[in-house]
Write the C-alpha cells for this entry.
Amino acid sequence: MIPTEHNSWKIPVARLLPPKLLLWPLIALLTGCAASALHDVSDSVASAIVDQNDVSIVREGLPAYLLMTDGLIEQNPDDVGLLISGAKLYAFFASNLVSDDTRSRKLTEKARGYAQRALCLKKPKLCDIDGLSHEAFTPALQKFDQDGVNELYTYGLTWAAWLQAHSRDWNAIADRPKIETVFERILELDENFDSGRAHYYLGILRTQLSPALGGQPEIGKKHFERAIELTHGKDLAVKVALARYYARMVYDRDLHDRLLHEVLEADPKVSGLTLSNTMAQQEAQRLLEEAPRYFQE
C-alpha cells in the first residue's frame, strides 16, 4: 500500500470542500489571480486530505480534485510544484482507493508521468534516467543534491506505486532494484525527509519477494524498524507493513498480532498522518481477522 504523504505533500484544505466550491478557484483563474491562487488551493487540498479521518469522504471527494489538478497543470505545464502535487495525488488514489487493477495501472501511469515531468524540469539532463541500465542508473543519481530531494522522492514513490499496479508483469518487477536505489539515494541526502518514509518504501520493496526471488526480508525489517524509530511509532502504516510483509513472510504470528494490536490501540489523530493512520487501523483489523486462516497450525 502506498500511504498518504505528509510534510513534503503540500498540495493542500483543512477540509475537503464539496464539488460546488470548486467554483471559486475557477473564478480566480478567470480574474487574473491564478498565480497565487493555484498554490493556495493546492496546499489547502493536501492539508485537508492528510488530516481527514473519514476515508469515505476522501474516496468520494478526491476525484474532483484530481480533475482540478489536471486542469491546473494543463494551464501551467512547467510548474514543478503542481506536477509534484498531481503525481502524489494520483499515486495515493490509485494505490489506496481504487480496487480495479486496470484502472490502477492507468492512474499510476499518470502519476509517474507527472513525476517524470517534474524531475525533467528540475534536472533536464536526467529526463530519461529510468531508461538507463542499472549500472549507469546508480551513478546518475549522484547528480541529485538536497535541492532535488522532493522531485526525486516523488519520482521514486510514483514508480513504486506503478510497480505495485503492475506486480504481475515481470518486466516491471525487473525495475525494482532501480526503485530501491532511488530511495537509498534519498536516505543519503536526507534520512528524515517526509519523516523517514524512504525507509518505509525500502521496507516494502525488500519484503515483497521471498529470498529465493531476490527479496531481502531481514534488511526490509530493519528499514521498517528505523521508520518506526524516526516517527516515534506515530506512523501506524509502518507497523502494519511490518506485520503484513515481514511477519507473515517469516510466519511470526506473535510479532504480527502484537504490531496490529498496537496499531488498533493507538490514537490515529496525528497532524499530517490522520488519514494514513485511519486507513492503517482498518487494514490492521482486516489482517487480524484473517490471521487464524493465514497462520494455520
The CA atoms of residues 62 and 107 lie 13 Å apart.
